[in-house]
Design a protein that fits this description.
Number of helices of chain A: 5
Number of strands of chain A: 5
Number of domains of chain A: 2
CATH topology of the largest domain in chain A: Ubiquitin-like (UB roll)
Strand order of the largest sheet of chain B: 3-5-1-12-9-10-11
CATH class of the largest domain in chain A: Alpha Beta
Helix content of chain A: 25-40%
Strand content of chain A: 15-25%
Largest interface: A-B, 54 and 56 residues
CATH class of the largest domain in chain B: Alpha Beta
Helix content of chain B: 25-40%
Structural class of chain A: alpha+beta
Shape of chain A: globular
Largest sheet of chain B: 7 strands, mixed
Distance between the termini of chain A: 45 Å
CATH architecture of the largest domain in chain B: 2-Layer Sandwich
Distance between the termini of chain B: 64 Å
Order of helices and strands of chain A: EEHEEEHHHH
Number of helices of chain B: 19
Bound molecules: FE2/S2 (inorganic) cluster
Oligomer: heterodimer
CATH superfamily of the largest domain in chain A: Beta-grasp domain
Shape of chain B: globular
Number of domains of chain B: 3
Strand content of chain B: 15-25%
Radius of gyration of chain A: 15 Å
Number of strands of chain B: 30
Largest sheet of chain A: 5 strands, mixed
CATH architecture of the largest domain in chain A: Roll
């Protein structure tokens, strides 16, 4: 059985048909071919699969496609660039050397975007809290935090 | 001259990584691809009686392989060829692969896996070093020893006679999981010529190729191995992909289809290698003034069921066992034992974090016994130019230990704080609930393969001219997040005199690039980078000859500056035009060269005496911690690091390496408690195997010190592994300063601190 959802995906109205019990992660990566969103654990522990659903960051490995509603707003890493290319946050990641292997980076960007949507001037502690659900094994987090701090 | 070396040039791959465009293996759309899976041993040791394929399942819908399907040899090709690709009669660890399955969908795959049942005759496993030593059950050879070494310098008896005090200590470390965010992932795709492309998340394409050729019993032209972008590795994808690559190759051969195999986090933790647990004993003679007179060191590693990289991990561990200190009389012995645990293999630091943890915790114990500040004790003994290491290697140049020590100590007023915290904490014992402490560690890491390893390897790399003045770097060195594919082009760009944007690394595919040796051992920048400077020099020479001929100018007067050929003050032509002219008039311009070791290197592998490494990188860490005396939770507030690495090709990448590696050390020191009980890993996911999050990080301060090394590109040495070596002892020493509790076994969990406190 498949169900249909009409959502706003990265700024475009998109109709998606998929199994209601499929993980949102699989729908995004498989059906929609948006492979920027990663799977690191499949159990809600690493945050690599983070996407924005109605401006809230969620682990797409824990959400089923059937849980989406028509009209929902879904943003993946592919939706972050603007017309001129990398957005401010992404550029700040470049400048601060915040990217190593990159596996955590899409999730980090999404978590940071959500944080900045809700809190325009987060403190360092709030930034740390904001990305605490996103594991990075490479960078030591310092440069990621700095990158976020600099766009505040 | 626009230089890129020494600048924070943005990584060449970061744009794609920030936009989700980078295609890791699982992101590739491979048409008609099947999904592979592994059925593995659920017991640590026993005989396989029978493999039952449940008849209720439709086996025609999938493909399965056992060892009987292996056309060639059933083992990985490393130093010791003891590890089967698929178990035959016996299984020797939980997670050892027995049956492979490939299916058209993930659902069918998981059904198939659950319909395969293995019957075993289980035996009593050997799990600890103690059990391995008593040889009641033999796992490897006649003595359960996977590797052993003894290094002798001077005469221990003489050294102990000179000593005023003898101090002993024993230090232990546990299993350590790589926890890269992208799990092990490989695919095999049949080629139109009947050959096979094997690709995925792997550090060393030529390692995988070697094993595949042996397993498939085919010529090297029948298979090519390609590295794809990797989501982290840290040594975890050095040896293991030879197994996983064989799995997908066997499945693809049998099914005639592409097959990809990506581990779930649980399968990854159960099946893939770990850092070796260790027990290191020190007996040290010192004079009253702190001068080290004798060091007797005994290193024991638990290697798990198969050798994988153990012989070299142990070798590197024991070579670093005396730390960055001068001592005339040293004896270090080291043994790696086989047990029925998951094999331990390569993990950033490669045996050195264990031995540095021991010596650096022990130095603090010595300082305490003598009543000397830990900084003074280290400063007194630290290796300097002209000293010899425990392998009797003369340190000829680029020895930054003392400078690192000085820099970190000054950077955070170490001595003053150390005294002050000690006094406060002794006075407050038990009354204050947060106690602060500060701790120090001094350490080094040898870059490149040990001894003459780099000449044995026959390391090759090259450059190739492309249209419009683009230069392609041909190297088997892989990018795994460390920045190699940015740093190597930076070196090439500057050596040639062209902008960084004109240089890129070819995909490390064994059909496209030469064997530059594995991407391990902190060797990429120092060895392959150096080799590329030589290639660039020859490359430029060829272009100069061409320009001299074409424009009738004196060759010796030619220079390539900012992508223009100039002769004296006269600009002849630009690099782009010259490149296109060369390609159309002369043809291909491709330079491949072989690495030559510095001429003075002498090494005896049997005695482990001589020039162990072309050069060492040096570092010192100061950790500042707060210990909650109610919950015994430890917070690392600040980490000051000074690192001497010859030359920082890209400072921001260097700092990133230092911070990231040190955070892995912090995790290993405080929270990463991989419990393997009766051969079964207990922490099978990232909820129970806790790695540091953004909440756990200290305030990072990294100081870079440059003491150029003559045989490094622009003076650079290695940096990949060093960062994991020093954090743990610095933290443990800080905990002692804060609490008076000397923990000698990491991770220092709150439970361990509480137990130790109760003993006082
Ligand atoms: S993959 Fe979803 S949290 Fe790890
Ligand atoms: S950059 Fe590798 S996990 Fe974060």
């Amino acid at each position: 059985m498949k169900v249909k959802r009409k959502i706003d995906l990265n700024g475009k109205v998109t109709t998606i048909t998929a199994s209601p019990v499929a993980r949102l992660l699989d729908v995004v990566r498989g059906d929609l071919k948006l492979t920027g969103t990663k799977e690191g654990c499949g159990e809600g522990e690493c945050g690599a699969c983070s996407v924005l659903l109605n401006n809230e960051v969620i682990d797409s490995c824990l959400v089923l496609f059937g849980q989406l509603r028509d009209g929902d707003l879904l943003v993946t890493v592919e939706g972050l660039e603007n017309k001129r290319g990398l957005n401010r946050l992404q550029r700040s990641f470049v400048k601060n050397g915040a990217v190593h292997c990159g596996a955590c980076i899409p999730g980090m960007l999404i978590a940071a975007t959500a944080l900045l949507k809700h809190n325009k001037t987060p403190s360092i502690m709030e930034i740390k809290e904001g990305i605490a659900g996103n594991l990075c094994r490479c960078t030591g987090y310092g440069r990621i935090i700095k990158a976020i701090e600099e766009v505040v | 001259m626009v230089q890129s070396v020494g600048t924070n040039a943005p990584r060449l791959d970061c744009h794609d990584k920030l936009t989700g465009r980078t295609k890791y293996l699982d992101d590739l759309d491979i048409p008609h691809c099947w999904f592979g899976g592994v059925v593995y041993s659920s017991i640590p040791y026993g005989r396989i009686i029978k493999i039952n394929f449940d008849p209720s399942f439709d086996w025609g819908s999938v493909v399965t392989c056992t060892f009987k399907d292996i056309p060639g040899k059933n083992n990985t090709v490393f130093l010791t060829q003891d590890q089967p690709i698929l178990a035959e009669e016996y299984v020797k660890h939980v997670g050892e692969a027995i049956v492979l399955v490939a299916a058209p969908t993930k659902e069918i795959l998981s059904q198939a896996r659950s319909h395969i049942h293995i019957e075993y005759a289980a035996s009593v496993p050997v799990l600890t070093i103690e059990q391995a030593k008593d040889k009641a059950t033999l796992i490897s050879g006649k003595d359960n020893i996977l590797a052993q070494y003894c290094i002798n310098k001077g005469d221990l008896d003489v050294g102990f006679k000179e000593a005023a005090v003898v101090i002993e200590g024993e230090y232990q470390t546990g299993f350590h999981e790589h926890a890269y965010i992208e799990t092990q992932a490989m695919a095999a795709v049949p080629r139109t010529d009947g050959g096979l492309t094997v690709m995925g998340s792997l550090q060393c394409p030529y390692y995988v190729l070697k094993t595949l050729v042996s397993v498939l019993n085919c010529g090297a032209d029948r298979v090519n191995v390609r590295q794809l972008p990797m989501g982290g590795s840290f040594g975890g994808k050095e040896d293991y992909p030879s197994l996983l690559g064989s799995y997908v190759a066997l499945l693809a051969k049998k099914s005639g289809r592409p097959v990809k195999l990506i581990y779930s986090r649980e399968d990854d933790i159960i099946m893939s290698t770990k850092r070796h647990p260790s027990i290191v004993k020190h007996k040290t003679g010192v004079k009253k003034d702190g001068t080290l007179t004798a060091m007797e060191i005994n290193v024991e590693f638990n290697g798990g069921a198969y050798a994988t990289m153990s012989p070299v991990v142990l070798s590197r561990g024991v070579i670093h066992a005396a730390g960055p200190y001068r001592c005339d009389h040293v004896r270090s012995t080291a043994v790696c034992y086989a047990t029925h645990n998951v094999p331990c293999g390569a993990f950033r630091g490669f045996g050195v974090p264990q031995t540095i943890f021991a010596i650096e915790a022990h130095m603090d114990k010595i300082a305490e016994a003598l009543g000397i500040n830990p900084l003074k004790l280290r400063a007194k003994n630290c290796l300097k130019l002209g000293d010899t290491t425990q392998t009797k290697q003369l340190l000829r140049e680029s020895v930054g230990a003392a400078q690192c020590l000085d820099t970190v100590a000054k950077g955070c007023s170490f001595e003053k704080k150390w005294q002050a915290y000690r006094r406060q904490n002794q006075a407050a014992r038990g009354k204050k609930n947060i106690q602060k402490g500060i701790g120090l560690a001094l350490y080094m890491h040898g870059g490149a393969f040990t001894g003459s390893g780099e000449s044995v390897m026959k390391t090759e790399a090259g450059l190739m001219l492309q249209k419009d003045g683009v230069v392609r770097v041909l190297t088997g060195c892989t990018e795994m997040g460390q920045g190699a594919h940015t740093v190597l082009p930076q070196i090439v760009a500057d050596t040639l005199g062209i902008p960084l944007k004109c240089v890129y690394c070819e995909v490390p595919d064994t059909d496209l690039v030469p064997d530059s040796g594995p991407t391990v051992a902190s060797r990429t920048t120092m060895i392959v980078g150096w080799l590329l400077t030589q290639c660039a020099a020859s490359f430029k020479e060829r272009l100069f000859e061409f320009i001299a001929r074409t424009y009738r100018v004196e060759k010796t007067a030619l220079k390539l500056v900012r992508a223009s050929f100039v002769s004296g003050s006269k600009r002849i032509t630009d690099f782009k035009t010259a490149a296109n002219d060369y390609l159309s008039k002369v043809g291909e311009l491709k330079v491949i060269e072989r690495y030559k070791l510095p001429p003075y290197i002498q090494w005896d592998p049997a005695t482990h005496i001589g020039d162990a490494y072309p050069a060492y990188s040096w570092a010192a860490d100061v950790a500042e911690v707060s210990v909650d005396m109610d919950t015994f939770e430890v917070t690392v507030d600040k980490m000051t690091i000074a690192v001497e690495l010859g030359r920082a090709i890209n400072p921001v990448l260097v700092k990133g390496q230092m911070e990231g590696g040190t955070l892995q050390a912090l995790g290993w020191a405080l929270m990463e408690d991989m419990q393997i009980i009766n051969g079964h890993p207990q922490n099978k996911n990232l909820q129970t195997y806790i790695i540091p999050t953004a909440r756990d990080i200290p305030d990072w301060r990294v100081h870079i010190i440059e003491e150029p090394f003559s045989y490094g590109p622009m003076g650079a040495k290695g940096i990949g592994e060093l960062p994991l070596d020093g954090g743990a002892p610095a933290i443990v020493n800080a905990i002692y300063n804060a609490t008076g509790l000397r923990i000698t076994e990491i991770p220092v969990t709150p439970e361990k601190l509480l137990r130790q406190c109760a003993k006082l």
